[in-house]
């Protein structure tokens, strides 16, 4: 027994050491980015991990400087926030409705449709970006924020599996009782299911919000007019790392990366309890 307990102790210690090393490797780039954002040097500094001098100038230039025609961070931030909010509303509605329909409503071809949706979801959306670009261009929706909302929201219903798994855990008896009292399917969904589904709603909202907030590929393809005020944060920050700007704007790029991460970090901290609970519940029957 003593030998087993010693081996268990060594195994536990080894696992913690490995996790500590991985955590350090994961945190180092983030720490470097934060430190660089406070650097007094405007360009990239690769000589030292900690800057030689600290300053808030990068944040001031990023947020309040109106003389720079290239950097429009407040405008980029609001563009991204607008796209993310509308995408979040549309996508969350699609996902919850599709999840409820596949979980509670039995109709012909249901399993075939679910299987087809899962298979279709295995293909990355980036494969279709050229076709999507030409389709939206024919409708005049390139260089248009509403076109991006359509792109991010269009296939969101395919991500129904986790929410469906959560709805499967809610007792069918509640829905049947409501139907016996004369409630329609829409009323059952709105008055019975949704009030009991706060964790999965939180998970769906966060996931839908993150897609446009972090996307670069589709935004860079669609917003190609060269007008800085049309860009999202990801496109704008990327342009700041171009060869002609990196030596004068890299510290501001780092500051922008820090500012972009703040809303998501706050959102996760506030909603962490529901987020974890929704994943755990949704994986039971998903």
Describe the fold and architecture.
With 286 residues, this protein is mostly helical. The chain folds into 2 domains: 59 residues; 216 residues, MetI-like (MetI-like fold, Orthogonal Bundle). The C terminus is likely disordered. The longest helix has 40 residues. Helix 7 packs parallel to helix 13 and helix 8 crosses helix 9. The two termini are 41 Å apart. The radius of gyration is 24 Å and the shape is globular.
State the helical fraction.
over 70%
Number of domains: 2
Q: pLDDT below 50 for ≥5 consecutive residues: which ranges? A: 282-286
Separate helix tally:
13
- What is CATH's topology name of the largest domain? MetI-like fold
What gross morphology would you assign? globular
* Euclidean distance between termini CA atoms: 41 Å
Q: What string, H for helix and E for strand, traces the elements in order? A: HHHHHHHHHHHHH
**CATH superfamily placement of the largest domain:** MetI-like
Would you tell me the structural class of the helices and strands?
Answer: mainly alpha
Report the C-alpha radius of gyration, rounded: 24 Å
Count of DSSP strands: 0
The largest sheet is: none
